[in-house]
Amino acid sequence: MAKDHGKQIKNDAKYEALRDEGMSKEKAARIANTPNASKKGGKASDLDDRSKNQLLDEAKKIGMSGRHKMKKSELIDAIRNH
Fold first, then answer.
1. Per-residue model confidence as pLDDT tens digits over 5-49
2. What is the distance, to the nearest Å, from the Cα of residue 52 to the centroid of all Cα atoms in its chain?
3. CA spacing 20 to 30 A to 45: which of 12, 39, 56, 58?
4. Mean pLDDT (whole number) for 37-64
5. What span, in angstroms and rounded, lies between the C-alpha atoms of 75 and 48?
6. What is the crossing angle of helices 72-80 and 52-61, to 10°?
7. CA dihedral over 61, 66, 70, 74, signed as positive or negative
8. Residue 70 pLDDT more than 90?
């Protein structure tokens, strides 16, 4: 049985599994709180195929600062490594 992480974590089991894999608390929480996260695998468009505006929106969602000064390639790297 997964530990209860409080109301801020929507899927405790998913959160614990991601933490066990070595993800940061922030990233594990973001993924665990995504609706239907386990059902979306492979359906997101490749970052390279997205426009810079789409990448800026994604960077904003994950709270990246300095995103407007980045080139498209820098945004892609920053999103992948966040």
1. 666 787 888 888 888 999 888 888 888 887 655 545 555 568 888
2. 17
3. 12
4. 78
5. 10
6. 30
7. negative
8. yes
* Residue located via tokens 């979306």: 40
69 contacts: CB under 8 Å, gap ≥ 6: none
Question: How far is it, in rounded angstroms, from Cα 3 to Cα 78?
Answer: 31
Six-digit token string for 78: 């920053």
Parse the chain into domains and list their residue ranges: 1-44, 47-80
| Reported confidence tier of residue 2, pLDDT bands at 50, 70, 90 | low
Contacts of 67 (CB under 8 A, 6+ apart): 56, 59, 60, 75, 78
pLDDT of residue 45: 62
